[in-house]
Specification:
Belongs to the enoyl-CoA hydratase/isomerase family. Helix content is about 50%, strand content about 15%. It is α/β, with parallel strands linked by helices and about 260 residues long. It is globular, with a radius of gyration of 19 Å. The mean pLDDT is about 95.
Protein backbone atom coordinates (compact mmCIF):
# COMPACT_ATOMS: atom_id res chain seq x y z
CA UNK A 1 0.00 0.00 0.00
CA UNK A 2 1.19 3.51 -0.69
CA UNK A 3 0.27 6.96 0.59
CA UNK A 4 0.31 10.26 -1.28
CA UNK A 5 -0.65 13.54 0.46
CA UNK A 6 -1.86 16.57 -1.44
CA UNK A 7 -3.57 19.76 -0.24
CA UNK A 8 -4.76 18.30 3.04
CA UNK A 9 -5.98 15.03 1.48
CA UNK A 10 -4.25 11.70 2.10
CA UNK A 11 -4.59 9.23 -0.78
CA UNK A 12 -4.16 5.61 0.32
CA UNK A 13 -3.81 3.13 -2.53
CA UNK A 14 -4.10 -0.65 -2.27
CA UNK A 15 -1.36 -1.71 -4.67
CA UNK A 16 -1.32 -5.52 -4.91
CA UNK A 17 -3.34 -5.88 -8.13
CA UNK A 18 -1.88 -9.32 -8.92
CA UNK A 19 -3.49 -10.63 -5.73
CA UNK A 20 -6.67 -8.62 -6.37
CA UNK A 21 -5.72 -6.31 -3.50
CA UNK A 22 -6.69 -8.99 -1.00
CA UNK A 23 -6.57 -8.08 2.67
CA UNK A 24 -3.57 -10.24 3.47
CA UNK A 25 -1.73 -10.04 6.78
CA UNK A 26 0.67 -7.55 5.21
CA UNK A 27 -2.10 -5.42 3.69
CA UNK A 28 -4.02 -5.26 6.96
CA UNK A 29 -0.85 -4.27 8.81
CA UNK A 30 -0.10 -1.54 6.26
CA UNK A 31 -3.64 -0.17 6.46
CA UNK A 32 -3.60 -0.21 10.24
CA UNK A 33 -0.27 1.61 10.35
CA UNK A 34 -1.36 4.22 7.80
CA UNK A 35 -4.66 4.93 9.59
CA UNK A 36 -2.90 5.26 12.95
CA UNK A 37 -0.46 7.77 11.46
CA UNK A 38 -3.21 9.78 9.77
CA UNK A 39 -5.25 9.93 12.98
CA UNK A 40 -2.38 11.89 14.57
CA UNK A 41 -1.66 14.05 11.51
CA UNK A 42 -3.51 17.36 11.77
CA UNK A 43 -2.35 18.34 8.28
CA UNK A 44 -4.65 15.64 6.84
CA UNK A 45 -8.26 16.82 6.61
CA UNK A 46 -9.75 14.02 4.49
CA UNK A 47 -8.73 10.59 3.18
CA UNK A 48 -9.36 8.81 -0.13
CA UNK A 49 -9.00 5.03 -0.23
CA UNK A 50 -8.37 3.75 -3.76
CA UNK A 51 -6.86 0.69 -5.44
CA UNK A 52 -4.76 -0.29 -8.45
CA UNK A 53 -5.82 -2.80 -11.08
CA UNK A 54 -9.16 -4.24 -12.21
CA UNK A 55 -10.33 -5.18 -8.68
CA UNK A 56 -10.82 -2.80 -5.76
CA UNK A 57 -10.49 -5.51 -3.12
CA UNK A 58 -11.29 -9.23 -3.21
CA UNK A 59 -11.57 -9.58 0.57
CA UNK A 60 -9.42 -11.85 2.69
CA UNK A 61 -6.50 -13.75 1.16
CA UNK A 62 -8.05 -17.24 1.03
CA UNK A 63 -4.76 -18.92 0.12
CA UNK A 64 -3.12 -17.40 3.17
CA UNK A 65 -6.05 -18.52 5.32
CA UNK A 66 -6.14 -22.04 3.89
CA UNK A 67 -2.45 -22.56 4.66
CA UNK A 68 -3.28 -22.32 8.36
CA UNK A 69 -5.59 -25.34 8.22
CA UNK A 70 -2.37 -27.33 8.70
CA UNK A 71 -1.91 -25.73 12.14
CA UNK A 72 -2.43 -28.05 15.15
CA UNK A 73 -5.75 -26.31 15.92
CA UNK A 74 -6.80 -26.36 12.23
CA UNK A 75 -6.29 -22.60 12.09
CA UNK A 76 -8.69 -21.58 14.86
CA UNK A 77 -6.27 -19.21 16.60
CA UNK A 78 -5.08 -17.68 13.32
CA UNK A 79 -8.63 -17.18 12.01
CA UNK A 80 -9.74 -15.51 15.25
CA UNK A 81 -6.68 -13.25 15.24
CA UNK A 82 -7.08 -12.37 11.56
CA UNK A 83 -10.74 -11.46 11.92
CA UNK A 84 -9.93 -9.40 14.99
CA UNK A 85 -7.24 -7.49 13.12
CA UNK A 86 -9.55 -6.91 10.18
CA UNK A 87 -12.30 -5.66 12.50
CA UNK A 88 -9.74 -3.35 14.05
CA UNK A 89 -8.97 -1.78 10.66
CA UNK A 90 -12.66 -1.30 9.87
CA UNK A 91 -13.27 0.32 13.25
CA UNK A 92 -10.18 2.51 12.81
CA UNK A 93 -11.80 3.94 9.66
CA UNK A 94 -14.96 4.77 11.60
CA UNK A 95 -13.00 6.23 14.53
CA UNK A 96 -10.63 8.23 12.32
CA UNK A 97 -11.14 11.98 12.93
CA UNK A 98 -10.99 12.62 9.19
CA UNK A 99 -13.69 11.46 6.73
CA UNK A 100 -12.69 8.52 4.52
CA UNK A 101 -13.95 8.26 0.93
CA UNK A 102 -13.69 5.01 -1.03
CA UNK A 103 -12.98 5.30 -4.77
CA UNK A 104 -14.17 1.98 -6.15
CA UNK A 105 -13.38 0.40 -9.50
CA UNK A 106 -13.95 -3.19 -10.61
CA UNK A 107 -15.27 -5.42 -7.85
CA UNK A 108 -15.40 -5.15 -4.07
CA UNK A 109 -16.20 -8.54 -2.61
CA UNK A 110 -16.53 -10.01 0.90
CA UNK A 111 -14.19 -8.06 3.22
CA UNK A 112 -13.58 -5.74 0.25
CA UNK A 113 -17.28 -4.86 0.30
CA UNK A 114 -16.96 -4.52 4.07
CA UNK A 115 -14.15 -2.02 3.48
CA UNK A 116 -16.39 0.11 1.23
CA UNK A 117 -19.27 -0.08 3.72
CA UNK A 118 -16.96 1.02 6.53
CA UNK A 119 -15.90 4.19 4.73
CA UNK A 120 -17.87 7.38 5.40
CA UNK A 121 -18.52 8.00 1.71
CA UNK A 122 -18.01 6.05 -1.53
CA UNK A 123 -17.67 6.95 -5.20
CA UNK A 124 -17.94 4.09 -7.68
CA UNK A 125 -17.29 3.60 -11.36
CA UNK A 126 -20.38 2.77 -13.40
CA UNK A 127 -19.07 -0.76 -14.00
CA UNK A 128 -18.17 -1.42 -10.34
CA UNK A 129 -19.79 -4.41 -8.67
CA UNK A 130 -20.22 -5.49 -5.07
CA UNK A 131 -21.03 -8.72 -3.23
CA UNK A 132 -20.71 -10.72 -0.03
CA UNK A 133 -20.25 -14.15 -1.65
CA UNK A 134 -19.37 -16.27 1.36
CA UNK A 135 -22.46 -18.48 1.13
CA UNK A 136 -21.22 -19.69 -2.25
CA UNK A 137 -18.20 -21.30 -0.57
CA UNK A 138 -19.91 -22.39 2.63
CA UNK A 139 -18.75 -19.41 4.69
CA UNK A 140 -21.38 -16.82 5.63
CA UNK A 141 -19.95 -13.28 5.48
CA UNK A 142 -20.57 -12.63 9.17
CA UNK A 143 -17.94 -9.97 9.74
CA UNK A 144 -18.66 -8.08 6.48
CA UNK A 145 -22.30 -8.21 7.63
CA UNK A 146 -21.53 -5.84 10.52
CA UNK A 147 -20.48 -2.95 8.26
CA UNK A 148 -22.93 -3.80 5.48
CA UNK A 149 -25.96 -3.92 7.79
CA UNK A 150 -25.05 -0.47 9.12
CA UNK A 151 -24.68 1.01 5.65
CA UNK A 152 -27.78 -0.32 3.86
CA UNK A 153 -31.35 -1.26 4.73
CA UNK A 154 -31.82 -4.64 6.44
CA UNK A 155 -33.57 -6.40 3.58
CA UNK A 156 -30.99 -5.25 1.05
CA UNK A 157 -28.21 -6.44 3.35
CA UNK A 158 -29.89 -9.80 3.89
CA UNK A 159 -30.41 -10.32 0.16
CA UNK A 160 -26.71 -9.69 -0.51
CA UNK A 161 -25.64 -11.95 2.37
CA UNK A 162 -28.05 -14.80 1.65
CA UNK A 163 -27.51 -14.98 -2.13
CA UNK A 164 -23.90 -13.87 -2.51
CA UNK A 165 -24.92 -12.35 -5.84
CA UNK A 166 -23.00 -9.49 -7.41
CA UNK A 167 -24.86 -6.20 -7.55
CA UNK A 168 -24.06 -3.39 -9.95
CA UNK A 169 -23.33 0.23 -9.16
CA UNK A 170 -26.93 1.30 -9.77
CA UNK A 171 -28.22 -1.14 -7.15
CA UNK A 172 -25.40 -0.20 -4.79
CA UNK A 173 -26.46 3.44 -5.13
CA UNK A 174 -30.12 2.54 -4.59
CA UNK A 175 -29.22 0.43 -1.54
CA UNK A 176 -27.17 3.28 -0.03
CA UNK A 177 -23.82 1.49 -0.19
CA UNK A 178 -22.30 4.22 -2.37
CA UNK A 179 -22.94 7.95 -2.80
CA UNK A 180 -22.59 8.42 -6.51
CA UNK A 181 -21.62 6.80 -9.80
CA UNK A 182 -19.11 8.20 -12.28
CA UNK A 183 -17.66 7.10 -15.59
CA UNK A 184 -15.11 4.27 -15.31
CA UNK A 185 -11.70 5.73 -14.60
CA UNK A 186 -13.08 8.92 -13.07
CA UNK A 187 -13.81 7.52 -9.59
CA UNK A 188 -10.49 8.50 -8.03
CA UNK A 189 -10.55 12.07 -9.35
CA UNK A 190 -14.15 12.46 -8.21
CA UNK A 191 -13.30 11.15 -4.75
CA UNK A 192 -10.30 13.48 -4.51
CA UNK A 193 -12.46 16.42 -5.59
CA UNK A 194 -15.03 15.57 -2.92
CA UNK A 195 -12.27 15.18 -0.34
CA UNK A 196 -10.94 18.58 -1.38
CA UNK A 197 -14.31 20.20 -0.72
CA UNK A 198 -14.44 18.59 2.72
CA UNK A 199 -10.86 19.70 3.40
CA UNK A 200 -11.96 23.32 2.87
CA UNK A 201 -14.30 23.07 5.87
CA UNK A 202 -13.37 23.47 9.53
CA UNK A 203 -11.43 20.39 10.60
CA UNK A 204 -12.57 20.76 14.20
CA UNK A 205 -16.23 20.82 13.14
CA UNK A 206 -15.67 17.72 11.02
CA UNK A 207 -14.03 15.93 13.94
CA UNK A 208 -16.93 16.79 16.23
CA UNK A 209 -19.47 15.77 13.61
CA UNK A 210 -18.05 12.48 12.41
CA UNK A 211 -17.59 11.08 15.91
CA UNK A 212 -21.05 12.25 16.96
CA UNK A 213 -22.72 10.77 13.86
CA UNK A 214 -21.59 7.23 14.61
CA UNK A 215 -22.19 7.42 18.34
CA UNK A 216 -25.68 8.97 18.26
CA UNK A 217 -27.15 6.48 15.80
CA UNK A 218 -26.58 3.66 18.28
CA UNK A 219 -28.50 5.53 21.04
CA UNK A 220 -32.24 5.68 21.76
CA UNK A 221 -33.86 8.82 20.37
CA UNK A 222 -33.98 10.88 23.57
CA UNK A 223 -30.41 9.95 24.50
CA UNK A 224 -29.25 10.74 20.98
CA UNK A 225 -30.70 14.24 21.19
CA UNK A 226 -29.18 14.80 24.61
CA UNK A 227 -25.76 13.62 23.43
CA UNK A 228 -25.97 15.65 20.20
CA UNK A 229 -26.86 18.79 22.16
CA UNK A 230 -23.82 18.28 24.37
CA UNK A 231 -21.58 17.87 21.32
CA UNK A 232 -23.06 20.91 19.60
CA UNK A 233 -22.57 23.00 22.74
CA UNK A 234 -18.88 22.06 22.86
CA UNK A 235 -18.58 22.72 19.12
CA UNK A 236 -20.26 26.11 19.57
CA UNK A 237 -17.54 27.09 22.05
CA UNK A 238 -14.75 26.25 19.59
CA UNK A 239 -12.75 29.02 17.96
CA UNK A 240 -13.79 27.89 14.48
CA UNK A 241 -17.51 28.14 15.29
CA UNK A 242 -16.94 31.66 16.61
CA UNK A 243 -14.99 32.54 13.46
CA UNK A 244 -17.42 30.84 11.09
CA UNK A 245 -20.51 32.51 12.53
CA UNK A 246 -18.73 35.84 12.62
CA UNK A 247 -17.68 35.46 9.00
CA UNK A 248 -21.24 34.59 7.98
CA UNK A 249 -22.65 37.65 9.74
CA UNK A 250 -19.94 39.87 8.27
CA UNK A 251 -20.29 38.30 4.81
CA UNK A 252 -16.65 37.25 4.47
CA UNK A 253 -14.69 34.04 4.02
CA UNK A 254 -13.88 32.34 7.33
CA UNK A 255 -10.27 31.75 8.35
CA UNK A 256 -10.16 28.35 10.05
CA UNK A 257 -7.80 27.73 12.94
CA UNK A 258 -8.93 24.13 13.48
CA UNK A 259 -9.53 24.66 17.18
Amino acid sequence: MRRDDRNGVALLVLDRPKSRNALSDAMLAALSEALAAIAQDRSVRAVVLAAEGPVFCAGHDLKEMTAHRADPDRGRAYFADLLGRCAGVMQAIVRLPQPVIAAVQGTATAAGCQLVASCDLAIAAADARFCTPGVSIGLFCSTPMVALSRAVASKHAMEMLLTGDLIGAEDALRFGLINRIVAPGAERDEALALAGRIADRSAVAIRFGKAAFYRQRELPLAEAYQYAAEVMTENMLSRDAEEGIGAFVEKRTPRWEDR
